[in-house]
Amino acid sequence: MACLTLRKKIIFAAGLLALPLFAEGCVSRGAYDENINLLMQKMNKERTENAATERALEIKVQERGRTLSELTNRYIELKAQQDYSQAKLGRLQNDLEGLLRDMSEMKLVIFTNFKGSEANEMMLKLNSMQKTVQEILKKSNEPMTAPAAAPAAPASQNQQTTPKSQP
Predict the structure, then answer these.
(1) DSSP state letters, the chain
(2) Distance from C-alpha of 26 to C-alpha of 19, rounded to nearest angstrom
(3) Is the pLDDT at 125 greater than 70, yes or no?
(4) Domain assignment of residue 57, yes or no
(5) Which one of 12, 34, 96, 121 is most buried, by most CB atoms within 10 A?
(6) Lowest-pLDDT choice from 34-48, 65-79, 133-147
(7) Residue 22's pLDDT band (cuts 50, 70, 90)
(8) Tell me: the pLDDT tens digits for 71-91?
(9) Number of domains in the chain
(10) Residue 18 lies in a domain
């Protein structure tokens, strides 16, 4: 029996020694509620921040979608304009080729019906016109690498726009 009481005493002593360890793990109801309230406030703050970030990201996605839609529409418009311009250019090229044929016929008529300096002047003028039309046709068949040059202004306009130096 003495052994039993000794055993009880050892268990009792071990329990007393372990009591502070168990008490450390215990939290009072007030501290628990305070910690829960702090955690709830922190969680609500994070949810608010996340919701604001989510709204900002949704707005960005909508803007990018709208921008993509606008770019797609602009591309379609530009493609339609390009197709129209290509068709117009094709018609103009056909007209220029027809003009070249008409000029050749006019040369033949002038050569057979007219003599003298007037005929030579007409032939020179027709040759100059044919050369200009041929250059235009040649340029229209070349790929465009740079924007077209602006037309040169007549000399009289250049003189009017340049400032005069004062002595």
Answers:
(1) -HHHHHHHHHHHHHHHHHHHHHHHH---HHHHHHHHHHHHHHHHHHHHHHHHHHHHHHHHHHHHHHHHHHHHHHHHHHHHHHHHHHHHHHHHHHHHHHHHHHHHHHHHHHHHH--SHHHHHHHHHHHHHHHHHHHHHHHHHS---SPPPPPPPPHHHHHHHSPPPP-
(2) 11
(3) yes
(4) yes
(5) 96
(6) 133-147
(7) low
(8) 999 999 999 999 999 999 889
(9) 1
(10) no
Distance CA 11, CA 18 (A): 10
Domain assignment of residue 100, yes or no:
yes
Euclidean distance between CA atoms 88 and 90, whole angstroms: 5
Place of tokens 């339609």: 80
140 touches 93 (CB < 8 A) = yes
19 within a domain of the structure (yes/no): no
Give the structural domain span for 32.
28-140
pLDDT at 32: 86
Confidence of residue 166 (pLDDT cuts 50, 70, 90): very low
d(CA 54, CA 150): 51
